């Protein structure tokens, strides 16, 4: 399959059309990644296609209560079962016992994210042929062309293993934040209560916080013992 050619064909189509194409091509061998943020729009669009679809989420063990509540709300609202993926217990135990609960404040988050997010994500994606993300061009203006509508995943492997074994769809690539939120409001889609409290980026509880006027979108997390 010439995925670059397909991208050129569908990249300017609507989010609904792109997601419908993804579901048509891969069906049950594809799943939507849901972080508990405004990417809930993907689930709403998938429901509008009328096709069966799968959704998975990574539970790092450190999400906000509001995010867990949204997971429950989404399952009830759409009548679906989210497929939850968890970190390897031994890997978490070894990391915490060796470096403490908050080592990520000192090492740039790489090791903690690797254990709690990247490894479980790799494990989940190894069961799929394709996945859907909520990435948008307006989230990273400096790398706008790095978010095609469809691509061979450059970082992860699929069920068949090896480079090129996983296909990644980004149906929201051309959507703006305003358009996503207008859509969610019109559809009455459940959303994370943290958004109303100033949270723009939502991840693990210790690593994300509300954005105040004039601050950057992804401010550094609070330190346990901030220096004056």
Could you characterize what this model shows?
This protein is an alpha/beta fold. It has a single domain (3-196), classed as 3-Layer(aba) Sandwich (Rossmann fold), CATH 3.40.50. The protein is built from eight helices and six strands. Helix 4 links the parallel strand 2 (55-58) and strand 3 (83-85). The chain is globular.
Short summary:
With 228 residues, the protein is of the alpha/beta class. It is built from 8 helices and 6 strands; from the N terminus they run ααβαβαβαααβββα. The protein has a 6-stranded mixed β-sheet, with helices on both faces.
| CATH class type | Alpha Beta
Structural class: alpha/beta
| CATH arch. level architecture | 3-Layer(aba) Sandwich
**Model regions low in confidence, pLDDT < 50 over at least 5 residues:** 212-228
Largest sheet: 6 strands, mixed
What would the keywords be for this entry?
Rossmann fold; globular; about 10% strand; single chain; 6-stranded mixed sheet; about 230 residues; alpha/beta
Helices and strands in order, then pairings?
Elements (H helix, E strand, L loop, with lengths): L2 H8 L4 H12 L3 E4 L6 H10 L5 E4 L6 H14 L4 E3 L3 H11 L4 H4 L2 H16 L4 E3 L17 E3 L14 E3 L7 H11 L41
Parallel strand pairs: 1-2, 1-4, 2-3, 4-6
Antiparallel strand pairs: 5-6
Helix pairs in contact: 2-3
């Amino acid at each position: 399959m010439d995925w670059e050619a397909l991208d050129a064909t569908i990249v300017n189509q609507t989010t609904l059309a792109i997601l419908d194409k993804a579901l048509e091509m891969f069906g049950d061998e594809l799943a939507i990644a849901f972080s508990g943020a405004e990417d809930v729009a993907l689930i709403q669009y998938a429901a509008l296609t009328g096709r069966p679809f799968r959704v998975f989420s990574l539970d790092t063990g450190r999400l906000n209560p509001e995010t867990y509540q949204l997971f429950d709300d989404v399952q009830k609202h759409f009548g679906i079962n989210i497929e939850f993926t968890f970190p390897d217990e031994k890997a978490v135990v070894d990391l915490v016992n060796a470096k403490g609960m908050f080592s990520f404040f000192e090492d740039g988050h790489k090791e903690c994210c690797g254990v709690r997010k990247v490894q479980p994500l790799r494990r989940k994606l190894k069961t799929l042929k394709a996945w859907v993300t909520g990435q948008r061009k307006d989230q990273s203006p400096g790398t706008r062309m790095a978010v095609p509508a469809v691509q061979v995943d450059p970082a992860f492997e699929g069920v068949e293993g090896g480079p090129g074994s996983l296909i990644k769809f980004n149906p929201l690539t051309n959507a703006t934040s305003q358009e996503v939120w207008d859509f969610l409001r019109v559809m009455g889609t459940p959303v994370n209560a943290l958004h109303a409290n100033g949270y723009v980026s939502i991840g693990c509880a210790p690593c994300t916080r509300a954005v105040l006027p004039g601050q950057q979108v992804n401010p550094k997390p609070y330190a346990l013992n901030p220096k004056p």
